[in-house]
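User: I'll paste a sequence; please echo it back and then give the predicted structure.

Assistant: Echoing your sequence first, then the prediction.
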Amino acid sequence: MIDVQNQWDDRHVEIKKVGVKNICYPITVLDKAKGVQHTVANVNMYVDLPHHFKGTHMSRFIEILNKYKGDIGIKNFAKILQQMKTTLKAKSAHLEIEFPYFIEKGAPVTKATGLMEYICRFCGRSNEGQEDDFSVGIDVPITTVCPCSKEISDQGAHNQRGTVTVTIRFKKFIWIEDLIQLVEDSASCDVYSILKRPDEKYVTEKAYENPMFVEDVVREVAKRLSADPNITWFSVESENFESIHNHSAYAYVEKY
């Protein structure tokens, strides 16, 4: 049969990324407490396409995923990227995996347990003649109390939920749980799935005694990340979904 994708294209336009997107696929992730955790990821896979080829072979991306079925994770990222380049005769390959990760978390006073969900990302890139690039990203929900509101109010202060997104590059393996803990320790208070009345009292008072602007949050996270010699690069962004404003508050920092 005719291989249409390999036919000549005379428009002389190279494509930087071409591939498949939004593949729902089961993966296994290392779990600090339980060894492994099974979850379902959203996967994007791309390669470059030289100007003289009409198209790439989309089915081959899925074949590569199936080859690594049950073993798609950090340790095999470089192998999968290399397989993509070899199979699709490409000079560069990109792999992005986003998935929910669950941690059993106890309430601060009653210790009532529930599952907390965190959205995680593994992103890898392999370019011919360059060192492979790999990063881990995590979205961590937090709560903050506004320092200005507390300072100017006779009673109380407004608070809000927020999301901190941390992306890092590192030298050696790092646990997802440790990154989450670092972020939660950098906020006014962390978020829980289950809170009884004693827990609500604790969380409310802890946050009130530790007011933080969105700027404070990203600076505190950046300070802690900078102190870890294992982390070679990071970006931190925080978005507060304001409770008394019709907008979000946002801050971003990055280490080069």
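DSSP finds six helices and nine strands in the chain. The domain at 132-256 is CATH 3.10.270.10 (Urate Oxidase).
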